Amino acid sequence: MFLNTDPGLVMQHIRHFVADRPHCTYAPRPSSIVPRFPAVMTTAELAAWAQVGKNAVPQLVTRFGIRELTGHAKNHRFAIHDVLQKIIGVTAMSQGDLEQLLMPLQKAAWVSRVTGLSTSAIGAGIRENRSPLPAPVELTVTGPRQAPARGRRWLVVQVEAYLRGDPIPFLAPGKPFPDLPENRAQDPAGNVFAAICADNAAVSRQRQW
Prior knowledge:
The protein is mainly alpha-helical.
Protein backbone atom coordinates (compact mmCIF):
# COMPACT_ATOMS: atom_id res chain seq x y z
CA MET A 1 0.00 0.00 0.00
CA PHE A 2 1.14 3.56 -0.54
CA LEU A 3 1.77 5.41 2.71
CA ASN A 4 3.61 8.57 1.61
CA THR A 5 1.91 11.61 3.16
CA ASP A 6 3.25 14.24 0.77
CA PRO A 7 0.21 15.45 -1.25
CA GLY A 8 2.21 15.97 -4.43
CA LEU A 9 3.73 12.50 -4.36
CA VAL A 10 0.42 10.91 -3.44
CA MET A 11 -1.22 12.55 -6.45
CA GLN A 12 1.61 11.45 -8.70
CA HIS A 13 1.44 7.82 -7.58
CA ILE A 14 -2.35 7.44 -7.74
CA ARG A 15 -3.01 9.48 -10.85
CA HIS A 16 -4.07 6.34 -12.67
CA PHE A 17 -6.76 5.78 -10.02
CA VAL A 18 -8.58 9.00 -10.81
CA ALA A 19 -7.98 9.04 -14.56
CA ASP A 20 -11.01 7.89 -16.50
CA ARG A 21 -12.90 6.96 -13.34
CA PRO A 22 -16.66 6.60 -13.84
CA HIS A 23 -19.25 8.70 -12.07
CA CYS A 24 -20.38 7.22 -8.79
CA THR A 25 -23.86 5.69 -9.02
CA TYR A 26 -26.24 4.45 -6.36
CA ALA A 27 -25.79 0.74 -5.67
CA PRO A 28 -28.55 -0.91 -3.61
CA ARG A 29 -27.31 -2.60 -0.46
CA PRO A 30 -27.30 -6.36 -1.02
CA SER A 31 -29.74 -8.36 1.10
CA SER A 32 -28.38 -11.04 3.40
CA ILE A 33 -28.74 -14.67 2.41
CA VAL A 34 -31.52 -16.30 4.45
CA PRO A 35 -30.65 -20.00 4.82
CA ARG A 36 -33.48 -22.51 4.55
CA PHE A 37 -32.00 -24.53 7.39
CA PRO A 38 -30.60 -23.18 10.70
CA ALA A 39 -26.80 -22.81 10.70
CA VAL A 40 -26.51 -24.55 7.33
CA MET A 41 -25.99 -23.40 3.72
CA THR A 42 -27.15 -25.35 0.70
CA THR A 43 -25.10 -25.47 -2.48
CA ALA A 44 -27.37 -22.84 -4.05
CA GLU A 45 -27.05 -20.57 -1.01
CA LEU A 46 -23.27 -20.90 -0.95
CA ALA A 47 -23.14 -20.05 -4.64
CA ALA A 48 -25.35 -17.01 -4.13
CA TRP A 49 -23.30 -15.81 -1.16
CA ALA A 50 -19.96 -16.23 -2.94
CA GLN A 51 -21.38 -14.86 -6.21
CA VAL A 52 -20.30 -17.88 -8.22
CA GLY A 53 -22.13 -20.41 -10.36
CA LYS A 54 -23.39 -23.59 -8.71
CA ASN A 55 -20.97 -25.59 -10.85
CA ALA A 56 -18.08 -23.68 -9.26
CA VAL A 57 -19.05 -24.66 -5.70
CA PRO A 58 -17.17 -28.01 -5.69
CA GLN A 59 -13.93 -26.22 -6.61
CA LEU A 60 -14.61 -23.58 -3.97
CA VAL A 61 -15.24 -26.23 -1.33
CA THR A 62 -12.07 -28.08 -2.26
CA ARG A 63 -9.91 -24.94 -2.35
CA PHE A 64 -10.92 -23.85 1.15
CA GLY A 65 -11.34 -27.29 2.69
CA ILE A 66 -14.99 -26.75 3.59
CA ARG A 67 -16.56 -29.86 5.09
CA GLU A 68 -19.64 -31.17 3.32
CA LEU A 69 -22.54 -32.26 5.52
CA THR A 70 -25.22 -34.76 4.60
CA GLY A 71 -27.47 -33.77 1.76
CA HIS A 72 -28.57 -34.60 -1.75
CA ALA A 73 -25.66 -35.29 -4.08
CA LYS A 74 -26.57 -32.24 -6.18
CA ASN A 75 -27.28 -30.00 -3.24
CA HIS A 76 -24.85 -30.63 -0.40
CA ARG A 77 -25.11 -28.67 2.82
CA PHE A 78 -22.34 -26.81 4.58
CA ALA A 79 -22.09 -25.45 8.12
CA ILE A 80 -22.27 -21.65 7.98
CA HIS A 81 -19.67 -21.41 10.76
CA ASP A 82 -17.27 -23.51 8.68
CA VAL A 83 -17.90 -21.49 5.51
CA LEU A 84 -17.22 -18.16 7.23
CA GLN A 85 -14.15 -19.46 9.02
CA LYS A 86 -12.61 -21.08 5.96
CA ILE A 87 -13.34 -18.37 3.37
CA ILE A 88 -13.13 -15.08 5.26
CA GLY A 89 -11.43 -16.24 8.45
CA VAL A 90 -13.91 -14.88 11.00
CA THR A 91 -16.66 -16.10 13.29
CA ALA A 92 -20.03 -14.44 13.78
CA MET A 93 -20.29 -13.55 17.47
CA SER A 94 -23.93 -12.43 17.37
CA GLN A 95 -27.02 -12.61 15.19
CA GLY A 96 -26.27 -9.11 13.97
CA ASP A 97 -22.77 -10.17 12.94
CA LEU A 98 -24.19 -13.17 11.11
CA GLU A 99 -26.66 -11.07 9.16
CA GLN A 100 -23.89 -8.72 8.04
CA LEU A 101 -21.54 -11.55 7.10
CA LEU A 102 -24.27 -13.30 5.11
CA MET A 103 -24.60 -10.39 2.72
CA PRO A 104 -23.32 -11.75 -0.61
CA LEU A 105 -19.67 -11.09 -1.32
CA GLN A 106 -19.32 -8.46 -4.04
CA LYS A 107 -17.26 -8.22 -7.21
CA ALA A 108 -15.14 -5.29 -8.34
CA ALA A 109 -18.06 -3.91 -10.37
CA TRP A 110 -19.99 -3.22 -7.16
CA VAL A 111 -16.95 -1.65 -5.50
CA SER A 112 -16.58 0.53 -8.59
CA ARG A 113 -20.19 1.73 -8.33
CA VAL A 114 -19.95 2.70 -4.66
CA THR A 115 -16.51 4.32 -4.87
CA GLY A 116 -16.65 5.85 -8.35
CA LEU A 117 -13.34 4.20 -9.26
CA SER A 118 -12.98 2.12 -12.40
CA THR A 119 -12.52 -1.62 -12.02
CA SER A 120 -9.16 -1.35 -13.78
CA ALA A 121 -8.00 1.24 -11.24
CA ILE A 122 -9.11 -0.97 -8.35
CA GLY A 123 -7.27 -3.94 -9.85
CA ALA A 124 -4.14 -1.87 -10.46
CA GLY A 125 -4.09 -0.71 -6.85
CA ILE A 126 -4.22 -4.30 -5.64
CA ARG A 127 -1.56 -5.54 -8.06
CA GLU A 128 0.78 -2.72 -7.07
CA ASN A 129 0.04 -3.20 -3.36
CA ARG A 130 -1.03 0.39 -2.75
CA SER A 131 -4.80 0.29 -2.61
CA PRO A 132 -6.23 1.72 0.64
CA LEU A 133 -9.46 -0.24 0.18
CA PRO A 134 -10.12 -3.27 2.41
CA ALA A 135 -8.37 -6.35 1.09
CA PRO A 136 -10.59 -8.62 -1.01
CA VAL A 137 -11.14 -12.34 -0.61
CA GLU A 138 -9.49 -14.38 -3.37
CA LEU A 139 -11.86 -17.23 -4.16
CA THR A 140 -9.70 -18.68 -6.91
CA VAL A 141 -6.09 -19.76 -7.04
CA THR A 142 -3.90 -16.95 -8.29
CA GLY A 143 -0.63 -17.21 -10.12
CA PRO A 144 1.09 -16.68 -13.47
CA ARG A 145 -1.24 -16.67 -16.50
CA GLN A 146 -4.28 -16.57 -14.24
CA ALA A 147 -6.87 -13.85 -13.77
CA PRO A 148 -7.35 -13.42 -10.00
CA ALA A 149 -9.81 -10.57 -10.50
CA ARG A 150 -12.48 -13.06 -11.62
CA GLY A 151 -12.43 -14.68 -8.18
CA ARG A 152 -11.92 -11.49 -6.21
CA ARG A 153 -14.70 -10.55 -3.77
CA TRP A 154 -15.25 -7.88 -1.10
CA LEU A 155 -17.27 -7.89 2.11
CA VAL A 156 -19.99 -5.24 1.84
CA VAL A 157 -19.68 -4.17 5.47
CA GLN A 158 -15.91 -3.63 5.13
CA VAL A 159 -16.22 -1.38 2.07
CA GLU A 160 -19.08 0.56 3.66
CA ALA A 161 -17.07 1.06 6.87
CA TYR A 162 -14.07 2.31 4.92
CA LEU A 163 -16.16 4.85 3.01
CA ARG A 164 -17.68 6.11 6.27
CA GLY A 165 -14.23 6.41 7.83
CA ASP A 166 -15.06 3.78 10.47
CA PRO A 167 -12.77 0.97 11.68
CA ILE A 168 -12.87 -1.99 9.31
CA PRO A 169 -14.89 -4.84 10.88
CA PHE A 170 -14.39 -8.59 10.59
CA LEU A 171 -10.69 -8.52 9.80
CA ALA A 172 -9.26 -12.03 9.81
CA PRO A 173 -6.03 -12.59 11.77
CA GLY A 174 -3.10 -11.84 9.50
CA LYS A 175 -5.27 -10.22 6.85
CA PRO A 176 -3.75 -7.07 5.27
CA PHE A 177 -5.09 -3.97 6.99
CA PRO A 178 -4.96 -0.93 4.70
CA ASP A 179 -6.76 1.42 7.10
CA LEU A 180 -3.72 2.29 9.22
CA PRO A 181 -3.82 4.95 11.95
CA GLU A 182 -1.17 7.03 10.21
CA ASN A 183 -3.42 7.23 7.16
CA ARG A 184 -6.40 8.37 9.23
CA ALA A 185 -4.37 11.01 11.08
CA GLN A 186 -3.20 12.82 7.97
CA ASP A 187 -5.00 15.71 6.34
CA PRO A 188 -7.54 14.61 3.69
CA ALA A 189 -5.41 16.34 1.06
CA GLY A 190 -2.66 13.86 1.86
CA ASN A 191 -4.80 10.88 0.97
CA VAL A 192 -6.42 11.75 -2.32
CA PHE A 193 -7.69 8.23 -2.99
CA ALA A 194 -9.53 8.11 0.33
CA ALA A 195 -10.92 11.60 -0.22
CA ILE A 196 -12.30 10.52 -3.59
CA CYS A 197 -13.94 7.46 -2.05
CA ALA A 198 -15.47 9.49 0.78
CA ASP A 199 -16.75 12.15 -1.61
CA ASN A 200 -18.31 9.57 -3.90
CA ALA A 201 -19.86 7.74 -0.97
CA ALA A 202 -21.54 10.98 0.12
CA VAL A 203 -22.89 11.47 -3.39
CA SER A 204 -24.19 7.91 -3.39
CA ARG A 205 -25.99 8.42 -0.08
CA GLN A 206 -27.54 11.68 -1.32
CA ARG A 207 -28.87 9.89 -4.39
CA GLN A 208 -30.30 7.19 -2.17
CA TRP A 209 -32.20 9.81 -0.17
